[in-house]
Structures are given as structure tokens and as C-alpha cells.
Write a structure and sequence with these properties.
Layout lengths: L1 H5 L19 H64 L4 H26 L4 H16 L7 H16 L8 E4 L15 H22 L3 E7 L12 H9 L13 H17 L8 E8 L2 E2 L3 E2 L12 E7 L8
Parallel strand pairs: 2-3
Antiparallel strand pairs: 1-6, 2-6, 4-5
Length: 324
């Protein structure tokens, strides 16, 4: 009995794995392939339907435009037939005939104008937009003939607004450039005064207009040589000097800060008196000996330095007042 059990044949499992692809039988693999093909076919059909829908929509729009053009043409043709019938009847009075001829000329001109517009690709909808544009031009008092130049100007201004901001130039009037004061005082030389009233004022006026600004800052700079005077009278006299009730020589500064302010006031008074600059506000200021040419702060530079003894003229737009 034991020998009989030992001779029981072993089961063969290899036959069950035949025909498998990735763990699927041949039938399952074929079903998966057919499913994938159906998905691809569905995607292609959907794409074709979309194209067909868009084509049908474009066709409807085109047919609508064509119908409008046919209607316009039909109306015009009917009008022509009516006028021809009236003309052929020969029973028009002189007034009616004159009216007819006028309407005929207008009709012919209108047809010619429409034909010219169609050749350039202009549709009726475009004419409505142009009419709206004409109204905007009229509302802003812009002549139609001047519209192209005005639009070009606005486009240029818009492009300039998008570009990096262009600051007005700084006018630097230094002793090294030949713009002198009397030594240790704010009194202008006659040559300096004459240039301020002519070429320099012209340059400032041009910049005010070009950059649309209305404030002129006059900044007095000095070198670091100390003044010999021990007391100053600026607190008592500068208002009267600004109002031209006292001459600039009445100012007696005792330090470089006061000397820079006095010299700025001398230049400011000349500019304020110029009619070309009457619409601008002129503000005298002092930077004393602190700022070197090139807008850097001094680290201490004693001695007689002509390039540091200068007037800088800067222009800007008046700042907006901010409510608290």
C-alpha cells in the first residue's frame, strides 16, 4: 500500500502558462487591443466632428454676410428700377427731374464707394466702427484730417511712457566753467548775470516745456575753505532779498552753508525776473560744502577747488499734496 502511494504521478503545471502575454490570455489581449483601437477611433471621430462644426459655423457667418450684401444690392437695384421707370414714363416735372438726377448721381457715387470699400476688404461692420471712431474724434475736437497724426502722437507717447523714465538734465554752472561770484560773497559777475538772463534761461525754458515740469531748484555749492566772517545776518535779511527789497550784497553769510544759500538766492532772483520762466516756481537751496561734483558726499577736501564752487539747476514737477 505504501509502495502504491509513492508511485502517484506528479501534476504538470507548465501547460497552464501557454498563450499568456503579460499575464493575460490571448483572448484577453485581443479584447484589450480592440478597446484601445476603439478609443483611438473615438478620438479621431471627435476631432473630425469639431472641425466640421467649426466649418459649418464659418459657413453660416459667411452666408449671413452674403445675405446682407444681397439684400443691400437688391434694395439698390429696386431703387434703380424705380427711378428708371419714373424716368421712362417721361411725366416728371422739372423739379422732379432735377431731384431724380441728384438722387441718381448720389446713388451711383454710393455704389462706387461701396465697390471700392469691398475691394479693400471693408465690410459694413467696419463702417459702423469707423463711425463710432469719428464720433470720438468730434467729441475731442480732433479734425478727421488730423486724426492720423494725432493717433501717431498718442502711440509715440504711450511707447515713451513704457520706456525707462528720462530725467531732465541738470545744468551745472561752476567757476571752473567760467561762472564766477565775487570772492566770499553772493554777488554775480556781470558776465555770469548776462548768461543767466539769456542762454541759460532759454535752456531752462526749453526743458520746462519739453518735460512738462514747473519747479526750478537752484542749489548753491561751495568748497571747504572757511569764511573769515564770524556772524551772519541771513536770518534778518534773506526774505527782503528774495522780495528784491534789498540787494544781494546785503547778505553776509558766516559759513559755507549760508554762502551756498546766498549764491542760490542771487541766481534765483535773476531767473524769477525772466518772463520766459514766469510760470515756474524757483526754489533757492544750499548744499554747502557737503556734495562733490558727481553727487557724492565729501570725506574732507580742503583747499581752493573751483569745480566745487558751483550752482546746480534742477527742474521737476511739483509734488502732489498728500492728505493726512
Amino acid at each position: 500500500m505504501a509502495a502504491h502511494i509513492a508511485e502517484t504521478p506528479k501534476l504538470e503545471h507548465k501547460g497552464y502558462n501557454r498563450g499568456l502575454i503579460l499575464g493575460l490570455t490571448m483572448a484577453e489581449s485581443m479584447l484589450l487591443l480592440v478597446f484601445c483601437l476603439l478609443l483611438v477611433a473615438a478620438a479621431l471621430v471627435t476631432a473630425e466632428r469639431k472641425k466640421r462644426y467649426e466649418a459649418e459655423r464659418e459657413l453660416q457667418v459667411t452666408e449671413q454676410k452674403l445675405a446682407e450684401l444681397k439684400k443691400d444690392n437688391f434694395d439698390a437695384t429696386a431703387r434703380v428700377v424705380e427711378l428708371q421707370a419714373r424716368l421712362g414714363a417721361g411725366n416728371l416735372s422739372p423739379i422732379d427731374r432735377e431731384k431724380f438726377e441728384k438722387e441718381w448721381r448720389e446713388l451711383v457715387s454710393a455704389r462706387q464707394a461701396v465697390d471700392r470699400l469691398r475691394k479693400t476688404g471693408v465690410e459694413m461692420a467696419d463702417l459702423e466702427k469707423l463711425a463710432a471712431l469719428r464720433k470720438v474724434l468730434d467729441d475731442n475736437d480732433i479734425n478727421l484730417d488730423a486724426a492720423p497724426a494725432e493717433i501717431k502722437r498718442l502711440v509715440t507717447a504711450n511707447a515713451a511712457a513704457k520706456s525707462p523714465h528720462e530725467w531732465p538734465p541738470i545744468i551745472n554752472l561752476s567757476e571752473a566753467g567760467g561762472y564766477y561770484f565775487r570772492s566770499g560773497s553772493a554777488e554775480l559777475t556781470s558776465e555770469f548775470q548776462q548768461k543767466l538772463g539769456t542762454s541759460i534761461s532759454d535752456q531752462i525754458a526749453d526743458n520746462l516745456s519739453r518735460y512738462q515740469v514747473d519747479v526750478i531748484e537752484v542749489i548753491g555749492h561751495t568748497d571747504e575753505q572757511p569764511l573769515a566772517r564770524t556772524s551772519s545776518n541771513l536770518d534778518k535779511t534773506f526774505i527782503d532779498v528774495l522780495d528784491s527789497k534789498l540787494p544781494i550784497t546785503a547778505l553776509e553769510p558766516a559759513d559755507n552753508a549760508g554762502l551756498g544759500l546766498a549764491r542760490a538766492m542771487a541766481v534765483a532772483n535773476i531767473l524769477k525776473a525772466n518772463p520766459k520762466l514766469s510760470q515756474a516756481t524757483v526754489l533757492p537751496m544750499s548744499a554747502a560744502q557737503l556734495i562733490l561734483p558727481g553727487d557724492t558726499v565729501t570725506a574732507g577736501q580742503a583747499g581752493n577747488v573751483e569745480a566745487r564752487r558751483r550752482i546746480e539747476i534742477r527742474i521737476r514737477r511739483r509734488a502732489q499734496s498728500l492728505s493726512p
